[in-house]
Design brief:
The structure is a single chain. This protein is an alpha/beta fold and 331 residues long. It has two domains: 182 residues, Periplasmic binding protein-like II (D-Maltodextrin-Binding Protein, domain 2); 100 residues, D-Maltodextrin-Binding Protein, domain 2 (3-Layer(aba) Sandwich). 40% of the residues lie in helices and 15% in strands. The protein has a five-stranded mixed sheet. The protein has a three-stranded antiparallel sheet with strand order 3-10-4, sandwiched between helices. Helix 2 packs across helix 14 and helix 13 packs antiparallel against helix 14. The longest helix has 16 residues. The radius of gyration is 20 Å and the shape is globular.
Length: 331
């Protein structure tokens, strides 16, 4: 799941909801999923001066963010702090306000979300490093520091059934040009279909002008969740997906490379309260190797464990941290 599909439209209503949620969290609301397993030592070393100091960890309330939030909680605790679990906050804007007001100390945010939603930019930047640098520089004015981004990029993509991809040698979006017109069928959200930066300009960008190379009858409109199943069962050949969604893995879909770099970057990065980080700069160094292990395939697997297998996000985060050696099973 992804929260950035409507990031270009942040309304006053959402802002008011965010303000209301901030009031609630300011009153000490704890996540309903505040459970985190006990653990033993691993490669994360305790930071000198941490001394069990409280660190407020916040996340949004969709699957990937819950997992990432629990990874942060575990890493912060392993570094010798006392993580205050404020994960599972409903919505991007409330989390942003908590960070802006310094009511939280660390979160994992997406570069594209910050640039388009919080900073009000009209167009995303498709180069991940340039997009990170842009939000990093802008947020210094807000007392927030962006740490090194992970390799995972929860952006838009088109996916295809694995067998169809192999049969037609499809690895990248531009390969769609090699198919006959009747095979260029798409499942997309209604919003993506009509957006100024959505389906029509994407097709133009890939030299597949709508109407001529891709007839309107070849484009089916679906709810977000239905796209994955429709692509898997052959209702269409190409489905609009989010690149870290666990259903990609569970339904044996192949994500096509965005080889002409149309979609903006949504890499995840730890974001710190600068006042806190100035006191404990080592925490940024502690989180860097954790973030470096989080690529798209890893997030697909972790998300699928929650969304498909029904596991608890805290247990999924714990198992991954143990498997990577960052922490260990409790003795």
């Amino acid at each position: 799941m992804s929260e950035h599909k409507t990031s270009h439209r942040v309304t006053a209503v959402l802002a008011m909801l965010g303000a209301g949620m901030l009031t609630i969290t300011g009153c000490g609301l704890q996540s309903s999923t505040a459970y985190t397993p006990e653990f033993g030592p691993g490669s994360i070393q305790e930071i000198d001066g941490a001394n069990d100091e409280p660190v407020r960890v916040v996340s949004k309330n969709f699957t990937e963010q819950l997992i990432l939030g629990k990874i942060l909680v575990l890493a912060v605790d392993a570094a010798g702090f006392n993580a205050q679990d404020m994960t599972n906050v409903p919505g991007s804007q409330p989390v942003r306000q908590m960070m802006m007001n310094h009511d939280a100390d660390v979160t994992i945010e997406y570069t594209g979300t910050a640039w388009l939603t919080y900073m009000g930019q009209e167009e995303g930047i498709n180069d991940p490093q340039k997009q990170w640098q842009a939000v990093h520089d802008e947020d210094l004015n807000n007392g927030l520091v962006w740490g090194e981004a992970g390799p995972f990029n929860n952006t838009y993509a088109f996916a295809v059934r694995e067998d169809f991809a192999k049969e037609h040698n499809l690895t990248k979006v531009s390969d769609i040009q090699n198919l006959p017109v009747e095979d260029r069928t798409f499942c997309v959200e209604a919003e993506f279909n009509s957006r100024a930066d959505g389906m029509t300009p994407m097709l133009e960008h890939y030299d597949l002008p709508r109407g001529e190379e891709v007839p309107d009858d070849n484009i089916g409109l679906y709810d977000t969740g239905a796209i994955y199943a429709a692509t898997a069962d052959g209702s269409c050949n190409f489905g609009e997906v989010f690149t870290t969604d666990g259903r990609i893995l569970s339904l044996n879909l192949t994500v096509l490379e965005d080889d002409k770099h149309y979609f903006p970057a949504y890499n995840g990065s730890p974001v710190f309260n600068q006042e806190f980080l100035d006191q404990h700069p080592e925490l940024e160094e502690t989180l860097a190797p954790v973030m470096a292990k989080l690529d798209n395939e890893t997030l697909q697997e972790l998300n699928a464990q929650v969304d498909v297998e029904g596991k608890d996000p805290a247990d999924v985060a714990f198992d991954w941290m143990v498997d990577e050696g960052f922490i260990s099973e409790p003795h």
